[in-house]
Amino acid sequence: MAKKRVLVVGGGLAGLAASMKLAELDADVSLMSLTRVKRSHSACAQGGINSCNDLTRQLGDSEWRHLDDTLYGGDFLQHQPPVKELVYWAPQIIDLMDRLGVTFNRTPEGFRDQRRFGGTLFKRTAFAGATTGQQLLYALDEQVRRWQASGHVTKYESWDFLGLVQDSSGRCRGCVAQDLVTMEIRAIPADAVIIASGGCGGIFGRSTNSVACTGSAVSRVFQAGARYANAEFVQVHPTAIPGADKLRLISESARGEGGRVWVPREPQDARPPGAIPEKERLYFLEERYPKYGNLVPRDIATREIFNVCVKEGLSVDRGRMCVYLDVSHLPREMLDAKLAGILEIYEKFQGVDPRAAAMRIFPAVHYSMGGLWCDYERIAEGGLNLCSPRTQQTNLPGLFAIGECDYQYHGANRLGANSLVACIFSGLSVAGGVISYVNSLPNGLAAEQSAALFAAERRRHEARYREILARADSGPNPYRVQAELGELMTRVATVVRHNGELEQAYGRVRELEEEARRCAPSDRGEWANQNVVFVRALQDMFPLARTILKGALARDECRGAHYKPEFEPLGVDAADPAERRRQAEEWCDQFEQNNARWLKTTVASLDRDGEPQLAYEEVDTSLIPPRPRLYGVAGGDLIEQAFAERQARRAAGRKP
Amino acid sequence: MNAGARAEGGARSFIVRVLRQDRPGSEAYWESHSVVHEPDMNVISVLQRIAEQARTVEGKRVAPVVWECNCLEEVCGACTMIINGRVRQACTALVDRLLEERPGAIELRPMTKFPVLRDLLVDRTRIFAALHKVKAWVPVDSYHHMGPGPRRSQDEQQMAYHYSKCMSCGCCLEACPQFLKIELTRGRDESAEAFRARCFAAYDRSFMGAHAIAQVELFNQNPIGKMSARERLDALTSEGGIQNCGNAQNCVKVCPKDIPLTRAIALAGRHATLHALRNWFDR
Amino acid sequence: MNASAASVFGQNEFVLRRWHSLTGLLPIGAFLCFHLATNASILDGPELFQRRVGQIHSLGATTLVPLEWAFIFLPILFHGVIGLIIVSRGQRNVHLYPYATNWRYTLQRWSGVVAFLFIIWHVLHMHGWVHLPWWTEHVAAPLGGARFDPENVLTAATAIQASPLVFAVYLVGVLACVYHFTHGLWTMGITWGVWTSPRSQRTANILILGFGCIVALMGLGALIGMQVQDTKAGSAQSAPAAPLEEGR
What we know:
The structure holds three protein chains of three kinds.
Chain A: E1 5-9, H1 13-24, E2 28-33, E3 49-50, H2 54-58, H3 63-73, H4 80-99, E4 114-115, E5 125-126, H5 132-149, E6 153-157, E7 159-166, E8 172-179, E9 185-189, E10 192-195, H6 216-223, E11 228-229, E12 234-241, E13 248-249, H7 253-256, E14 260-264, E15 281-282, H8 284-288, H9 298-310, E16 323-326, H10 332-338, H11 340-350, E17 359-368, E18 371-372, E19 399-401, H12 419-439, H13 451-469, H14 478-492, H15 499-518, H16 530-554, H17 577-598, E20 600-606, E21 612-618, H18 636-654
Parallel strand pairs in A: 1-2, 1-10, 2-6, 10-19
Antiparallel strand pairs in A: 3-5, 4-5, 7-8, 8-9, 11-18, 11-20, 12-13, 12-17, 14-15, 14-16, 16-17, 20-21
Chain B: H1 2-8, E1 13-21, E2 28-36, H2 43-53, E3 80-83, E4 86-89, H3 95-101, E5 105-109, E6 116-118, E7 121-122, H4 125-133, H5 154-164, H6 171-174, H7 192-205, H8 210-221, H9 229-236, H10 250-254, H11 261-281
Helix pairs in contact in B: 4-7, 5-8, 8-9, 8-11, 9-11
Chain C: H1 3-11, H2 13-40, H3 46-57, H4 61-88, H5 100-127, H6 133-140, H7 154-161, H8 164-191, H9 198-228
């Protein structure tokens, strides 16, 4: 029998983890990536990787609490069984990465060191300097190189995935792809295809994502019939350095160590920040959230910074939106000891020393919680059967999705340092299911499929490529179309969302899509033509952009990263205790009604006309019942109490 | 929004000279582009503007300049090129600083030690071939759960972290006077696979460079990697190995990640010597 | 170099380069120091210098000639030929990367080439390459070589005083040798892994710089000593201090 051939699209943490595990299971792996896999976006992750560990366990932590933190942080929008499986695997994943040589920071006794991250009380996060993602990526890259040396893995680096090859029954039998240097278009047969192509930050123009994160591979399988879930959940990080080319993260620890966020009270005060006297500064986070100050949760910090610039017009600069993040009042020795790594990034890219002058920062699109819809097989205890071919499989048979481009693990909002562990977990766990799937294929392996099937698909993509090359000169400039799409999406579909704006934007995006169809490449050559590749990727951004907008428009509630002020429930603001109690009960009623309506996965599919159609899927919340997320809500304590009493009453009612 | 910023900045513009080449083996030529100055510009954003304009300073329509980039945060190593004569990453090359260094114009050219594919895009396969050659990986038994990795001291971790920050960008090789360009051309009847094999064979015989030597140190200090140290030392002392180092020490000065490459070379030199002596006496 | 020679070199690259490194110190570097120290003794008067030379030559040709070839000429030839291959395989770039160590690397190449050519000429000039009467008379002497007579050390001074050009060549040649040797000592410490940290490399560099200055001063001393000798006055009669068992 011929060897099982598996195609992995994307060479970040998830794709590499899947490749090495599949190679170990003796599959023949083709690994395809837009860049050298060592240059993948996973390298950008700084903070760390979460798991319950021996130390936190003794302080009362457990996998179950990791599960609880993850679900609570994600506003309970995740199916709970896959998350449960993830958190129970997490400690083993860190152990494995440790064996693979990841240079995790150490304690004086030689154990792995851990730090605390947002959304938990435990020091759950293992880290390797300020570049944990890079270190994890390299360890996996090295393992895959080892399998490449032994002939198990073939790399297609600097290749663009153009589309699936599906047989008459709809099964994936491989893909068509293009070499980005020679521009050769080739069909590559495979018995299963795994998409691990990461996020889609490119849709938002500039984001914290890498250049390769255009979402094009995801969009191409979406257009081929795969479903896309929870598109509207896009995480925005509050503090990034605005750059002309990209937005770079400044870690939360800058505020953790005493950094203050402010704007001049006088709009666009031209004086240098140090020259603006204290009383002419507006420390808006400290003023509005006296309890949390500058350390309010991410989504709130993001909203406030956004509002102060957009609504109140107090942006520091006139030409672009930004506020000051100031550490210049802190002692230099302390800054150098604790924040050197972060401050150096600012210095390197802005050419300004943040120890001497306040940094200019602004929120930036960071992570897509949504992604390709995929399946799992639950077992009685609430975890997963990882040998099931359903594991991570999309609705298209033979197509799997893992990493940032699957939707399963982060719900409505991702917890810091959970993405790395989810990427590696989904990569490792998909392997068993893929092998089961290939073993159960009813009608032969890809190698035995008819050549005509591949030739026809190849011709189709060749024709699309030729069509772009041959477009009339008069077409719009693709880079400007992307810039406008990005600005529009960032304005209406990130921090604060309004139905009117979303509706309007949807219309404009349609127009831009038409323009993108006419975009003319300025390069007509047939050798390393990045221009045509860009035009094609740009066109493929639109189905996803429209799905994000449509999902956001439809979801009339606030949940995690999705925030619509019109649908924000009122807090408890009465003075009279009885009235307060009544308000809290009302809040709880509202919360429950809202969950009944909206605690559902948005599942989009494209219809014949390319219009995203939304359906809603029940979320499996069988392990931990959803409860309200009450950061910064007025009267939160009272609501929490009222809700807990309700839960207790219900539990008591169920027992007898 | 952009227009406002530009108007405020007085619409100052500057010239970017790019050494272009259409294909491997074809003639290289200089081309000038005029770019409007914006705040916080780096060479990446300059190249983005050039792609958008697709017009030279003379107004001639041209194809956008081709270059490689990804993370734009100096952790991926992709956008390495020669900027104002010095090899570095385009993302951390700030326009204002470059114009201070050399007023009026910025000069971009591809790395000279690797075959040019097009414009600023070069083929750096040789870097990765060297990682193959020195077996730069930890040879674990399996990916099953076998408990945590070995305990390591903070000092060991720090040293390993330094070495393992290498992003295979190639700066150390570009600046190395002992590392020479190898450019082969595919024969008329040669298959892609055969050509690739021929390239790898040629790469294997030529100097591996500082980055690979540091990787040998990284993996030979790893408690698991140590068990196969002799294989790596064999590679290190084979043709193209550490003996080619000329101690010019440019590598350590141009390394964007401040990897202690010269220390790695000296330590690897010691280990290579002991290895060779042991091989000789144990023969 | 043809393909098969290149592949022989390639297959044994590591061992050849280690031998190349080693021969630079032992015997070549050691001999250089000894040679310059001996020659510098001329500063204490030609008599002492003559005595030293006499001591060396007292070994007798049967001993001295094999010693010369085994520990001086062949190692230098080996070191020089391998060195030329090394130089031909580098691409100096100090104009692009003008760092101190890169300058020293570049100088090491140039000084090596200069030193090798100088030594070849110097051995001809003083020694005549080989001591066969026919060769000395018909080849070496007409080429301006074999000027040194161990029985009369002032012949060396005479040869050097022959023209300012000769003196200049000696000056450059000796300094090239000294630089090449001492910087080679520093790189050798790295190559063999003696000093590994940047700090220890800096310290070693300072110590070696001091040592290099001493060796250079010996070389300069010897040269100046030769240059200021009054070769006409005493000439051949300046009494050999030690009886020579055998002249050549």
